[in-house]
From TrEMBL:
It is a multi-pass membrane protein. SUPFAM superfamilies: Metal cation-transporting ATPase, ATP-binding domain N. InterPro entries: ATPase_P-typ_cyto_dom_N, P-type_TPase_V. One of its GO terms (molecular function) is P-type transmembrane transporter activity. This is Uncharacterized protein. Coiled coil: none annotated. Keywords: ATP-binding, Magnesium, Metal-binding, Nucleotide-binding, Translocase. Its main location: membrane.
Length: 129
């Protein structure tokens, strides 16, 4: 529904649950969001204790971290028309924190020597994500 925006550092979808469990009933409609921990933090209804400390510690260790969040939609908002008409800001508000998705991205053995050689050649090194 709401494509990834590099400016907003997040994306979200509206989905109907097919197989429910004790937490979410089948047929329930949810807003599911993922994005940078900083961006998702501004949209959470309640900030979990240690949220910032946890993702920063993971990032310092070289992990790529995404925050995951969701919000159940009320029946009237979950109708097809309600989903289409609701603005992004409405869908992506009062989200509930679901966790972090953490991805390892280890450096290749040849990376450090290669970067040193490039730097020694007078080139400026930058990392662009």
């Amino acid at each position: 529904r709401h494509h990834f925006s590099s400016e907003l550092q997040r994306m979200s979808v509206v989905a109907r649950v097919e197989g429910g469990d004790e937490d979410v009933a089948a047929g329930r409609v949810l807003v599911l969001a993922k994005g940078s921990p900083e961006a998702i933090a501004t949209l959470l209804r309640d900030m979990p204790a240690g949220y910032h400390r946890a993702y920063r510690a993971l990032a310092r260790e070289g992990a790529r971290v995404l925050a995951l969040a969701y919000r159940p939609l009320e029946a009237n908002a979950a109708s097809s028309a309600g989903v289409r008409e609701a603005p992004r800001a409405e869908h992506e508000s009062s989200l509930l924190f679901a966790g972090f998705a953490v991805f390892g991205c280890p450096m290749k053995a040849a990376s450090a020597p290669t970067l040193r050689e490039i730097g020694a050649g007078g080139h400026r090194l930058l990392m662009i994500t």
